[in-house]
Every structure is written in C-alpha cells, then in structure tokens.
Amino acid sequence: MKRTNGSPRASVGRQRLLETAGRLFLRRGTANVGINEVTEAAGVARMTLYNNFPSKEALTIAVYEQMAETVLQALERLGRPPTEAARIEAIFDFFAASAAIPGRRGCPFIHASLQEAEPAGPIHSLVAGYKRKLRELVLGALDAERGDRCEVADQIVLLLDGAVTEAYIGGVVDPFLAARRAAATLLRSR
Q1: Theoretical Cys-Cys bridge with 115: which of 31, 76, 140, 175, CB 3.0 to 4.6 Å?
Q2: How far apart are CA 133 and CA 108, in angstroms?
Q3: The model scores a pTM over 0.70
Q4: Distance between CA 184 and CA 123 in Å, rounded?
C-alpha cells in the first residue's frame, strides 16, 4: 500500500477513510458504495484516497482486515472463563452483542465475500483466513482433553454463522439463545 510521507495528516485521512468506508460497507454493502461517496462522507479529497489506497478493492481489503483484527482481538480479550461451556457461551454473547448494533446486516465477512466478483479473489481469501482464526479461537475454548474438539469447533462455528445470519434476517425469534442452547446440548452430548 502506498502511503503519503507518513505525516500525521495522511494518517488521519487514511483512518477517516477506513472508518467511513467501514460504516458504509456494513450498512449497504461494498458493491453499493462508490469511491466518491466514501471520500465525501469522510471529508477528504479523492487524492487522499488514492495516496493511501490504489483502488476501491485495496480500500475494501484494508477495511475488512482492520475489522477482522478488531473482532479477533476482542474475542481474545474475553479471557478464559473456568468452564468449557462458559467459554463457548461468552463467544456467543460477544456475537449477540455485535449483531444487536443498529445497521448490522449479518456477518460482515460473509456479506463482503458474497459481493466479490471473483469467488477466489482477495476478499474471499481474507474472509477464509478470518474464519480459520475464529475456528482456532473456538477450538482453544474447548477442553483440551475433548477427543472430538475439531468436529465440535466446526459445529460451533456453523452455529455462530447461523445465529448471526438469523439475527439479521429475523426468521428465528431469538437466534443467539437458540444457538447457545444448541451448543450447550452439543457440549453435553460428547
């Protein structure tokens, strides 16, 4: 990524672009937001955008990289509750709180990957990496002596994805409660 001389002003412009584009992308999707709208809403010149990001795709990747890092760091800060069930419940609670933020449209990473023209493009790769790291966090929350940890981690990630999607669509009355209960049943049945 090309940056302008590292000046504080360039840094402020870059951060403003990332924050503004992130809000707009979450609200309307990357495909429905143009560069002019991003620069206007951020209050920066187009040249500031192109000095920091050579293309809309580069801006989009930077937005979702920052978003993935923020989510994963927040999950790591949840700490380590004493029981496996409490650790998994804390992860569900984190995503439930995130899904309740006004304007959320399901999982922003899945949403971004579905808007990409190339299914094997850089956004898809970024999302796949994020999902792998999320699965690793879930795997780490499971008891080490659990023989079926990998399978259970996969199932919990699927429950999380379903709950986040249903929270947006509204087909299930309380998707996170249903998903937490399904996860608890899964943990007890193994």
Answers
A1: 31
A2: 16
A3: yes
A4: 33
